[in-house]
Amino acid sequence: MKTIIKLVLIYVGFQFLGGLLALPVMFFLDKTYMLAFALILASLMMIWYLFKKDYIRINEYTWSIRSVSALSWMVAYGLGAYFLATWLNEQVDLPNVMEDQFMDLSFNPLGVLGIVVLGPVAEELLFRGAILGFLLKKLSWRNAVLTSALIFGIIHMNPAQILYAFLLGMALGRIYYKTGSLLICMIIHVMLNGISTALTICYPDAQSLGEMSGVAPEGWFLLVGALLLIGGSYYLNRMRELPFWKDPVLAEETASVESTDEESKE
């Protein structure tokens, strides 16, 4: 698991490095632009690193939507997870230590670029492509998805986001395992972050989905979320297993990456 620890530390390191590189922006623009530049730089550095070090395994499924039907059901599944995860998050009501920063970034064009596009792309490449892809070679798919989702939740380091990110990570992890498509995961992640950002812009004072729509989340949102999850889950269960997750050749390649990492440290 040294590879996973290394990747998480590099991700955190790029967050700090992005912040340091963006500091000069404060001399010309306000703090919100600095935060936006920091997010964009950290995301770009993470994307660059993952491809440069060959952590992303490219195959026929990686950039495929599989089919229009598959993409549609996966989007429905992601929306169902979004509704239920958001409702559960509201019930727990943990402190949101980044609320002000997220609000500011949501009204900044560069902030929207970072939150809605580059951030999700970098996170899918790291947490689904690299980390979950690695874990699927070592663990059962359920334990691999659970572990990657836990890491995804904790790494957000904001109490109000941990549960939501964990549940979303479970849904995206299952989608990646069954479809093998990072593109589908990216589309869903971008869409969900876009919805959250749009709702923040349109309803800046709302404290819940119910307040934004005028419908009690215990009713309509729970029902719709459950139906979408059930439908998407049924479709996922009918998809055939992808053979390459336990391919011994790919497992050896993964092990060689770890040994290369250890040799470089020496």
How much helix is in the residues?
A: over 70%
Spans of at least 5 consecutive residues with low confidence:
248-263
Helix/strand order, N-terminal first: HHHHHHHHHHH
- Number of DSSP strands? 0
State the oligomer: single chain
- What is the first-to-last residue Cα distance? 18 Å
Judging from the principal axes of the Cα atoms, what is the shape? globular
Overall pLDDT metric: 88
* Number of helices, counting only DSSP H or I runs of 4 residues or more: 11
Biggest sheet details: none
* C-alpha-based Rg, rounded: 19 Å
Secondary-structure-based class equals mainly alpha
Task: Write a brief structural summary.
78% of the residues lie in helices and 0% in strands. It is an all-alpha fold and 266 residues long. The protein is globular and about 55 Å long.
Quick tags:
mainly alpha
Describe the structure.
This protein has 266 residues and is mainly α. It is 78% helix and 0% strand. The protein has helices spanning 2-22, 31-52, 68-92, 99-106, 109-138, 141-154, 159-179, 182-202, 209-213, 217-238, 248-265. Helix 3 crosses helix 8 and helix 7 runs antiparallel to helix 8 (182-202).
Present the secondary structure layout.
Elements: H1 2-22, H2 31-52, H3 68-92, H4 99-106, H5 109-138, H6 141-154, H7 159-179, H8 182-202, H9 209-213, H10 217-238, H11 248-265
